[in-house]
Amino acid sequence: MGEVIVVTSGKGGVGKTTTTANLGMGLASHGKKVCLVDADIGLRNLDVVLGLENRIVFDIVDVTSGVCRIRQALIKDKRCEGLHLLPAAQTKDKTAVNPDQMKELCEELRKEFDYVIIDCPAGIEQGFKNAIAGADKAIVVTTPEVSAVRDADRIIGLLEAAELREPKLIINRYRPKMVNRGDMMSIDDMNEILAIDLLGVVPEDEQVVVTTNKGETVVRDEKSQSGQAYRNITRRILGENVPLMNLEEQSGLFSALRKMIGLK
Amino acid sequence: MTKETLFNSTASNPSPGSFPVELEGLVDENTVLVQRTLRSGQSIYHDGNVVILGDVNPGAEVVASGNIIVMGSLRGVVHAGAKGDTNAIILAFRLRPTQLRIGNHITRPPEDESSDPDYPELARIKNGVVTIETFNSVIR
């Protein structure tokens, strides 16, 4: 029986979809069978981020309303064996699915897959309730902004009320230089308020935008720091004990030179 | 907590004078104990005293007709003496409220954020003004 994990945040634009795509790809490249579920009905993105938009025939609403079987709606990833996507519907809205249907869907999917990762929509309404209905674990994504942390706090409260205990935190778009200058919330600042286990910190990285726009995932980019962060998070989900990586590392000519002569 | 148990505990104490005089008003049978952190969007409304064993995060709200004690960081909105009791107090291990209300007084912390003390503080109305004092000094 697989594990159903919901990726949520409350606030929009903090990187739920990017995180879902990268964790899915990361887990699949470890040989796991992974199904990504886009629960953001009406504003579907996950297929675009994965570059699978042109393969969609059926969607999640077709499955829950009995138009097709799950198998027919699942899309196999073009690069990675083991990664599947259940796309959201674009022409319907959040009320097209109810929490009971989602629960049933998750139960079906967990029989087939090692990991079912649900991309939750922003907000705390019906879409959120649908997305968490069938999950047994939750990952909360936030960015080092007061508003995002506030929403994350609200979401953690709602998750606890829904009996989804011990959610894990991913801090996205972290900029160590700004933190050092005192212009951005530090990991400790966020920990003090949210007080939940930290699953990982993903630094701000242009490469995320570059890969996402091409329908690729940064987790497969061996060189980028954010890719490394996602690979570490993947290994932590798999139960390995991976220390937080050093985000201070300079990525300039100077440090490259130092590395070359072995000073590092 | 009932009145009786409180009286018992003072009776067993050889020097009842060590109990801070200012907190005598806290003796009340109508007190709730909240054993968790209040997160954004969560709230407690209670006709009596409220004791919170945890933090009150920004966006959370505690309203009590009596006193409010937070055994943690208080960062949200609190209203003690919500029915007009100007003798109500608010006590927190780290008092950093978004807004603090006692009776019909509404205050907010100064904008400059120069002080960030790491010890318990107590808010109450003195001479018609909400004052914040170090809790240790009250006990002494």
What's the topology here?
The complex is a heterodimer of chains A (264) and B (140).
Chain A: E1 3-8, H1 16-29, E2 34-38, H2 46-49, H3 60-64, H4 70-73, E3 75-76, E4 83-86, H5 99-112, E5 115-119, H6 126-133, E6 137-142, H7 146-161, E7 168-174, H8 176-180, H9 187-194, E8 198-203, H10 206-213, H11 225-237, H12 253-260
Parallel strand pairs in A: 1-5, 1-6, 2-4, 2-5, 6-7, 7-8
Antiparallel strand pairs in A: 3-4
Helix pairs in contact in A: 1-11, 5-6
Chain B: H1 3-12, E1 31-34, E2 43-46, E3 49-52, E4 61-64, E5 68-74, E6 77-80, E7 90-95, E8 99-102, E9 105-107, E10 121-126, E11 129-134, H2 135-139
Task: Describe the 3D structure.
The complex is a heterodimer of chains A (264) and B (140). Chain A is α/β, with parallel strands linked by helices and 264 residues long. Chain A has one domain: Rossmann fold, CATH 3.40.50.300. Chain A is 41% helix and 16% strand. Chain A is built from twelve helices and eight strands. In chain A, β3 and β4 form a beta hairpin. In chain A, α1 crosses α11 and α5 packs parallel to α6. Chain A is globular and about 60 Å long. With 140 residues, chain B is mainly beta. Helix content of chain B is 11%, strand content 37%. In chain B, the strands form two sheets. Chain B has a six-stranded mixed beta sheet. The radius of gyration of chain B is 15 Å and the shape is globular. The two termini of chain B are 25 Å apart. The N terminus of chain B is likely disordered. At the A-B interface, α7 of A face loops of B.
Question: What distance lies between the first and last C-alpha atoms of chain A, to the nearest angstrom?
Answer: 45 Å
Strand order of the largest sheet of chain A: 3-4-2-5-1-6-7-8
How are helices and strands ordered from N to C of chain B? HEEEEEEEEEEEH
Strand content of chain B: 35-45%
CATH architecture of chain A: 3-Layer(aba) Sandwich
